Every structure is written in structure tokens, then in C-alpha cells.
From TrEMBL, chain A:
Gene3D superfamilies: MetI-like. The chain crosses the membrane at residues 20-44, 85-106, 118-139, 167-189, 220-240, 260-287. This is ABC transporter permease. Coiled coil: none annotated. It is a multi-pass membrane protein. Belongs to the binding-protein-dependent transport system permease family. CysTW subfamily. InterPro entries: MetI-like (IPR000515), MetI-like_sf (IPR035906).
UniProtKB/TrEMBL annotation, chain C:
PROSITE patterns: ABC_TRANSPORTER_1 (PS00211), ABC_TRANSPORTER_2 (PS50893). SMART domains: AAA. Coiled coil: none annotated. It comes from the Bacteria. It comes from Salinisphaera japonica YTM-1. One of its GO terms (molecular function) is ABC-type transporter activity. This is ABC transporter. InterPro entries: AAA+_ATPase, ABC_SmlMolc_Importer, ABC_transporter-like_ATP-bd, ABC_transporter-like_CS, Mo/tungstate-bd_C_term_dom, P-loop_NTPase, Transp-assoc_OB_typ2. Transmembrane segments: none annotated. Keywords: ATP-binding, Nucleotide-binding, Transport.
Length: 302, 257, 370
């Protein structure tokens, strides 16, 4: 295959490789890996007088994250971590529940309509996420029809509005990430082997059994890919909780951001960011393992 | 159910558009149609500067990312027989890293570096650098997947038909990759337009973009003027979607079906 | 067309200057991808100019590797390769006057049919008028001049095959290489294109090197066939030689149905093998080969059997396959089974379990070593 893949390597081939990938690799290493490494080192530094990191190395930031402050132990930070996890799981679950039938519906539509339908699902996500949040702020603000309805039903106290609230954050997350679940699920539904459903029915399975054995296993790779694409960014989400959640519903992303803005405690913020990275990696590893166990292949990761 | 979904998807955008034409400052009552917020918009130099910054950021970063990402994607393909696992990880890193972590990592790095060297400041330059570093991997993956989908014998066919390395790049690889490169450019563009967090943390006082302007405005309370800017941005995206659709339609027609 | 001279497998020839009528000469070609993957284990071969030459073998035998080395797409680890009088062992593919029709055709999707056919001429730097003219002529020759403006994804399999052929032929190569070009086509189209390829080769008098795993295809089309196995050449010869005088059991089995048995004992009057005794004078060898069609099958008590002499094998029908023009029987005899074919002349079929006698002429029986 000439230079496009044969086993013959040498200095020329190496030079060729470096020439092609070096700009990208250097760019990512210098402008992403190095900053990330620096951030991680900050997590182990001392918080200086202006919130900037100083030596010596210490575990102070992590202790602070765990809740040990000047006034003794407080669970506030752990609540933030817990709330972030709950919101992530809730949002991912809701996205699956909505996206699954939607993806199926699109895959059964006439072939020439499908690209248009997919485009309709995806287009809102092309707008800036701040603008999407503004849309929900407009809809859920106090005095709007939806808020009045919720107040009339006694769900919220009058004049409060549906935002800012946990509910608004969950809604915002679901709205934001829906396309990321629909697309991979559509991809698996489009290739669905319906003979397996017939086989399940033929072998005496009911509707649930046919779904459980004929459909679900085939869609698992898409489900896992979608979960990776939704849960990981949802866990690190900053804009939506910040705009729709208000001060009382802090998520991890906001906690991190504040340490680099108003509160100015870089080591503490870096420690929280490190926890975020570790949680992301752990989630990724678990989902990959799950993917392999369930018979999916490398295709689970894009 | 499908129509309920469409309502859910487009209601927030529609609300923004509708209230941008509201003649009074309220998100609860729509009183009458007015263009006063748009007039205010175009009279505001800060906003016009922010729009200019947004456009420069999106276009320059997308062009850089397309060039770098295309070379990266082709390099990954041409040397896929070798052990390039580290390269895959490096490319996935920007894709999986939470954008808030991404943003503060670059904020801390660039601001310390700027303070230490005194030769640059946070601004449009650092924003472009940051954007390219998360756009390029997406372009690379698009280009790579296009190449992997090709019959590898096509490369042989080029050599067999007397093309040297340069001719092969010029007459086969580039024309074949063209759709992937164009798609990569537009993907980079939407990634840049969609981003707020990374821009926010790598920006300087002189490089406010539209989303950053909107963000700080919302922090003071939402105004119809914000809705008007947002409407214009939504309009741009819808126009892009329409162009995409038209493009697909034309290609569909060309393939003779 | 002049009948090409007989090819040779001649590792021991000291003569190293290629003869004028040799299109390709391979000496000691060796290629390995890692220690366990030897693709070519020392290949010596002369391919006569103007011949339809087939490389035949099972998948993984090295035939495609050999083709790629001739095309210049891979470089051998050892050995030399001459095309005509020129040593091209280290010459890059794009500098060799050799063209290939690839398996699955490898047509360029971003170009139309004319663009594909003209690609090689364009890379050679010919001017537009020359390219158009030669593309037109070649397309007319292959009878695809009505397709020149089409896009590749609008073509059928057979049309793609022709475009790939035209794209190679337009360059007037010294040698045309064909890598299983018909394997993706259905049976009917396939046999039509076999005939067409053969006619084109005869009209042009060009050297065709054709790779296939299908022995029927190889026999129908080739002047000469080289049978490859595990990176080595087992035998080179005309289809008739390979079928009737295989050099070893591998070739015998690969070239169609073979009743092949180890010889247990041999004396002046005949030999003993699994199904019993075979009378006649045979050369000293390890195996005996009896092709199904040299035998006739009869009822055990038929008059022909009584008058047939010594070489009659008695047995029972174990399986029978009705193939329309002929019947194919598997007959149990002695400790083994033989396959025999019987032309359908309306004589009816033997039942399974029926006692039968197989009669043969010893002139058709072949003994071989290995």
C-alpha cells in the first residue's frame, strides 16, 4: 500500500509521519496538556495572598474540598458533589427516556425524510448554549404562563417562577443534551435487524420479551455511546446550572469557576477540577468496560 | 409525539425571537411589535465590537483547525499500522475533557505565562489558540473516518497509474477528502459558535464576544436587547442549517435518484 | 498471435539475461511480513511475452503478493524482478510501465468515467487533446463509450469492471495485471466477461497476468497457469498439463476432482492401493491419480465388465448427485471411495447401494510423487 500502511518503515516514513501530525500534536500538547498538567499541580499548592498558588506543596485544597475549613467541618462542598451526581444521572435518564422512542420513530420514517428530521433535532444545539439558556429563562420566569400554571397547581409558591430552580437545571440539561443521545441511537436503530424481533416473537416472547431480547441488545452500543456523550459533559456543565439554577443550586462546575473569579482560591478550584477529571475518567472506564462486557466492540467509543 | 418534541426543541428559541420584538421590557407580557431593541443594538458600539470579535474568532480558529486537523487525520491514517495509541488518546483528550476544566486550565496557564513573560495578554489570540485545540481533533476524526472508509487499493491505483506522491495528494487525496474537509470546517465553526465557557475563561478585557457580552448582561437581568442579539445569532444558525439542507438536496439530485 | 514458447521454472539456469520473448522474469523473490507471515518463499518464474498467464492458488498462497511485487506496490525482501530487459526490482510503482485491474476495481469516486480512464495519461503529463482522443478510442474498444460522462456510483458491477480495464489498457502497458477482477460478479456475467477478456488479450497481444482462486476460470482462460501454495510455485504449465500430469498431490487436488490414493506396493504387473489392485506398468511413485471422467460406471453384471480385462473396480454406490448433463457418483470400494461421472444419455441412474463396476483404461491413470 505504498506509504499508506505497508509494513516498511524507516526514517523517511517517520519524517513523513512527524511532518503530518506534529503541528496538531504540538498544538494540543502545548496548549492543552501543559495547561492541564499545570492545573493539576496547582491543586497541590498553597493558596497565596491573592488567591494565586504558591509553594510549598500541600493537601490543604483537598481537605478544604472535603469540608474542613476555619470553622470546622461542613458538608456544603460534598452536597455540591452529590447534587452534581444526582443531576447528571437524572438528566441522562430523562434524555434516554425521550431519545429512545424519538430515534426509533425517525428510523421508521420514510428514508427521504430522515435527514431532515435529524437536522430538525440537531439544529437547536448549533445555537450558543447561553442563548438556549436564555430561552428557558424567558419561558420559566415568574409571571409567564407556565409559571402561573405551576403556581396555580400548587407546585411552586406564587410569584416565584419556575426558575431559578433544580427543575429548571434538569430541564436545561435534558434540552441541551437530547441530540447527543438521539444521533447514536438513530445510528443503531437504522441498522436494526428486525428478524431478531420476529425470532423472539416466534420463540414465544411477548412484547416486553421481544423488546428485551430482540431490540435492546442491538441498541446497547448506541445507548452506551449516547450515555458517554451526555453524562460526561453534563457532569462538568457550567452554563446551565449557573444561569438556570441560581445561587442555591450550585453544581461542581460553578464551584470550580468561582475559585478562579470572585472567591479567588486557585488551589481549591484546581482540586475540585481534578476531582471532576477523575470522575470523568472513571465514568469513561466503567462505560467502556460495560460496553465490552455487553458484547459491544470498539465502536462504543465513536 | 414528534410534534411535541419539535415544540420542546424550538419553543425556547421561538420565545427569544418573539420577545425580541416586544415593545415593552417584559418576558411575561407581549404588548406590541417593535424594532426598538434592534435599533438600540445597532447603535451600541460594544455590541458591534463583540459581534466582530465573535466572527473573527470563529472564522480564524476554524480555518486553522481545519488545516491542522486535516494533516493530523491523514497522518493517523497513513501510519495506522504503527502503534499510535498515544495519538488517539491525545486526540480524545480535548473531546472528553469537561469544558470548564479546559477553560480554567488555560486561564491559569496563560495568565501566569503572560504575567511571567510580559509579552502577551489574554485576548483574541489566546481565545483562538484555545478554540483550535478543541476543534482540530474533531476535524481530524472526520478526515480519518473518511479515509478509513475508502478502499485502500485506491492509493495503490494512484501509484499504478503513474502518480507520484505530490500528484497523488493533488489529484486523489485532496479531492476525495474535500467533503470531509468542508464538513470539518463547518463542524469547527459550530463548535466555536456554540462555545461559551472556554472563550469566557481565555478572553481578555478587549476581546468580548457576543456570548460573553450576553452572559455579563444576563447577570444584571435579562433584557429585550439580549433577546434581539440572540435572535440574530439564531437567525445565522438557521440560515446555516438551510444552506446545509439545500446542499444535501442538490447532492441527492446529482446522484440521480 | 504467435504461440508463446513454453515457460520455465528454472532456478538452476545460469543464464541470467532475459530472453526477448520473456515479459517478466522473477528470481528468488522472497517477502515476509514478520517471521510468521512469509508471503513469498522464493519464487522463480518466467512469464512469456504475449501470453495469458494465470497465478492460481487458494487464498493466502501468495498470488496477490506476487502481483503486488510485479506492480511495484510492495518491494520484495530479496530476489530480482525484470520486466522486459529492465531490472525493476527497486523501481517505484509509478515509474513502471505496468497497470493493474484491481479487485473491487478501485475506481476514483470523485471522477467520472472519462476522468478515471484518463487518470494515468494525465499523471504522465499528456495534453488534454491527446488524453481525450485516447480515452475515446479505448472506451470504444471496450464498448463503454456511451458511459464516459457517468459517475462511478451510477455504474453496474460489469460496467465498473470494464472501466477499470479501460483505465489500465489506455496506458498501453507492457504487462497488464488483473487481481481477481471477476470475483465480484454473478456467474452469468462472469463467464461472458471471461470470454471478452480473452478476446481483448488475443487482439492486443499484450501480456496478461491474471490472479484467481478459481481453477475453472484459470483453465478456461489461460495459456499457462502457475499453481501457488504457501508462497511457493508448485507447478507451471498449460492447463492441460496441470490437469492431466500434475506434478504433485496438491496440484492434482487443486485442479478439480481427484481420486488420489497412496501406493502401497508395486511390482512388474501392477500396483496395490486402498481400493485394491490396479494392473499395468507404472513408474515408481507415491500416489496414483484417477480422474473421474476416465472411468465408466456399469452395473456389476453388465457385459462390458466381463470383457473389460483386469482394471475393474467393484463397489457400491454410496451417494449420487444429479447434475443434468451428467451424474456424479461416489462409490465405496475396498477401504475407500471414488468419485466417478457418467454422462446423461437417458440411461437412468444407479440406486444408492447398487453394486457397480468401474472400468478404466490404464493410459489415463497418472502416478505422482509427493
Amino acid at each position: 500500500m505504498a506509504d499508506a500502511g505497508s509494513g516498511k518503515t524507516g526514517w523517511r516514513a517517520t519524517g513523513h509521519l512527524l511532518g503530518l501530525v506534529a503541528p496538531g500534536v504540538i498544538w494540543i500538547v502545548v496548549f492543552l496538556v501543559a495547561p492541564a498538567a499545570y492545573l493539576m499541580s496547582i491543586a497541590f499548592m498553597t493558596n497565596g495572598s491573592y488567591g494565586l498558588p504558591e509553594l510549598p506543596f500541600t493537601w490543604a485544597a483537598f481537605k478544604q474540598l472535603a469540608g474542613y475549613g476555619f470553622l470546622g467541618w461542613s458538608p456544603a462542598n460534598l452536597y455540591v458533589v452529590g447534587r452534581t451526581l444526582v443531576q447528571t444521572v437524572l438528566a441522562t435518564g430523562l434524555v434516554v427516556v425521550i431519545a429512545y422512542p424519538v430515534a426509533y420513530y425517525i428510523s421508521r420514517a420514510p428514508a427521504r425524510l430522515r435527514p431532515l428530521m435529524l437536522l430538525l433535532v440537531v439544529v437547536p444545539s448549533w445555537t450558543n448554549q447561553v442563548i438556549r439558556a436564555i430561552g428557558w429563562m424567558n419561558i420559566l420566569a415568574p409571571g409567564t404562563p407556565l409559571s402561573d400554571l405551576a403556581a396555580a397547581l400548587g407546585l411552586i409558591s406564587p410569584h416565584m417562577g419556575l426558575y431559578p430552580s433544580q427543575f429548571a437545571v434538569a430541564l436545561g440539561l435534558v434540552y441541551n443534551f437530547l441530540p447527543f443521545m438521539v444521533l447514536p441511537l438513530y445510528a443503531v436503530f437504522e441498522r436494526l435487524d428486525t428478524a431478531q424481533i420476529d425470532a423472539a416473537r416466534d420463540l414465544g416472547a411477548g412484547v416486553w420479551g421481544a423488546f428485551r431480547h430482540g431490540v435492546l441488545p442491538q441498541t446497547l452500543p448506541g445507548l452506551l455511546a449516547g450515555t458517554v456523550l451526555v453524562a460526561i459533559p453534563a457532569f462538568g456543565m457550567y452554563v446551565i446550572p449557573e444561569l438556570l439554577g441560581g445561587g442555591k443550586n450550585l453544581m461542581l462546575g460553578s464551584l470550580v469557576a468561582r475559585q478562579f473569579a470572585a472567591a479567588s482560591n486557585w488551589p481549591f478550584g484546581a482540586a475540585a477540577a481534578l476531582i471532576m477529571i477523575l470522575a470523568t475518567l472513571a465514568g469513561l472506564v466503567v462505560l467502556r468496560r460495560l460496553g465490552r462486557r455487553l458484547g459491544g466492540d470498539a465502536g462504543v467509543m465513536l | 409525539m414528534w410534534y411535541a418534541l419539535l415544540v420542546l426543541l424550538y419553543a425556547p428559541l421561538a420565545v427569544v425571537v418573539v420577545y425580541s420584538f416586544n415593545s415593552v421590557n417584559s418576558s411575561a407580557d407581549f404588548v406590541g411589535v417593535s424594532l426598538r431593541w434592534y435599533r438600540a443594538l445597532f447603535a451600541d458600539d460594544t455590541i458591534l465590537a463583540a459581534a466582530w470579535n465573535s466572527a473573527v474568532l470563529a472564522l480564524v480558529s476554524s480555518m486553522l483547525a481545519t488545516a491542522i486537523g486535516t494533516a493530523l487525520g491523514y497522518g493517523m491514517y497513513a501510519h495506522r499500522a504503527r502503534r499510535l495509541g498515544w495519538l488517539i488518546w491525545l486526540i480524545y483528550l480535548p473531546i472528553i475533557m469537561p469544558d470548564i476544566v479546559y477553560g480554567i486550565a488555560q486561564l491559569s496557564f496563560f495568565s501566569r505565562l503572560a504575567a511571567a513573560t510580559q509579552i502577551f495578554d489574554l485576548g483574541l489570540g489566546t481565545m483562538i489558540i484555545a478554540h483550535v485545540s478543541f476543534q482540530a481533533p474533531f476535524v481530524a476524526l472526520l478526515v480519518y473516518s473518511r479515509l478509513v472508509g475508502l478502499d485502500p487499493r485506491l492509493f495503490d491505483a494512484c501509484s499504478d497509474l503513474y502518480a507520484n506522491a505530490w500528484q497523488r495528494a493533488r489529484f486523489f487525496i485532496l479531492p476525495t477528502l474535500q467533503p470531509a474537509i468542508v464538513a470539518g470546517f463547518f463542524l469547527a465553526l459550530t463548535l466555536s459558535i456554540d462555545d461559551f465557557v472556554i472563550s469566557y475563561f481565555t478572553s481578555g478585557p478587549e476581546s468580548v464576544t457576543l456570548p460573553i457580552f450576553i452572559w455579563s448582561a444576563i447577570k444584571r437581568g435579562i433584557s429585550p436587547e439580549i433577546n434581539a442579539i440572540a435572535t440574530l445569532m439564531i437567525g445565522t444558525v438557521l440560515a446555516a442549517a438551510a444552506i446545509t439542507l439545500a446542499f444535501q438536496y442538490v447532492r441527492h439530485r446529482q446522484s440521480g435518484e | 498471435m504467435t504461440q508463446p514458447s513454453s515457460p520455465t521454472v528454472s532456478p538452476d539456469t545460469a543464464d541470467n539475461t532475459p530472453r526477448a520473448d520473456t515479459a517478466i522474469r522473477l528470481r528468488g523473490l522472497y517477502q515476509a511480513f514478520g517471521a510468521d507471515a512469509v508471503a513469498l518463499a522464493g519464487v522463480d518464474l518466467d512469464i512469456p511475452a504475449g501470453s495469458f498467464f494465470t497465478l492460481l492458488g487458494p487464498s493466502g498462497c501468495g498470488k496477490t503478493s506476487l502481483l503486488r511485487v510485479i506492480a511495484g506496490l510492495d518491494t520484495p525482501d530479496a530476489g530480482t524482478l525484470h520486466i522486459g530487459a529492465r531490472d525493476v526490482t527497486r523501481v517505484a510503482a509509478h515509474k513502471r510501465n505496468v497497470n493493474t485491474v484491481f479487485q473491487s476495481y478501485a475506481l476514483f469516486g470523485h471522477l467520472d468515467v472519462a476522468g478515471n480512464i484518463g487518470f494515468g495519461l494525465r499523471m504522465h503529463g499528456h495534453d488534454r487533446a491527446t488524453i481525450n482522443d485516447r480515452v475515446q478510442k479505448t472506451a470504444a474498444f471496450i464498448q463503454i463509450d456511451n458511459l464516459l460522462g457517468r459517475r462511478i456510483d451510477q455504474l453496474s458491477g460489469g460496467q465498473r469492471q470494464r472501466v477499470a480495464l479501460a483505465r489500465a489498457l489506455v496506458n498501453e502497458p507492457d504487462v497488464l495485471l488483473l487481481d481477481e477482477p471477476l470475483s465480484a460478479l454473478d456467474a452469468g456475467l462472469r463467464s461472458r466477461l471471461q470470454l471478452e477478456l480473452l478476446r481483448i488479450q488475443r487482439r492486443l497481444g499484450m501480456t496478461f497476468v491474471f490472479v484467481t482462486h478459481d481453477q475453472d476460470e484459470a483453465m478456461v482462460m489461460s495459456d499457462y497457469v502457475a499453481v501457488l501454495n504457501e508462497g511457493r510455485i508448485e507447478q507451471v504449465g498449460t492447463p492441460a498439463t496441470l490437469y492431466e500430469r500434475p506434478a504433485n498431490p496438491f496440484v492434482a487436488r487443486f485442479m478439480g476432482h481427484a481420486n488420489l490414493f497412496a501406493i502401497r506396493a508395486r511390482d512388474a504387473t501392477g500396483l496395490t492401493t486402498d481400493f485394491g489392485r490396479l494392473a499395468g506398468e507404472f513408474a515408481r511413485a507415491d500416489h496414483v491419480l484417477i480422474r473421474p471422467e476416465i472411468m465408466t460406471i456399469h452395473a456389476a453384471d453388465a457385459p462390458e465388465v466381463a470383457s473389460a480385462g483386469d482394471n475393474v473396480i467393484h463397489g457400491r454406490v454410496r451417494e449420487r448427485l444429479y447434475r443434468g448433463s451428467r451424474m456424479e457418483y461416489t462409490v465405496a470400494a475396498g477401504e475407500t471411495e471414488l468419485v466417478v461421472v457418467d454422462d446423461n444419455r437417458g440411461q437412468g441412474m444407479f440406486e444408492i447401494g447398487a453394486g457397480v463396476a468401474l472400468v478404466m483404461e490404464t493410459t489415463g491413470v497418472v502416478t505422482l510423487d509427493g
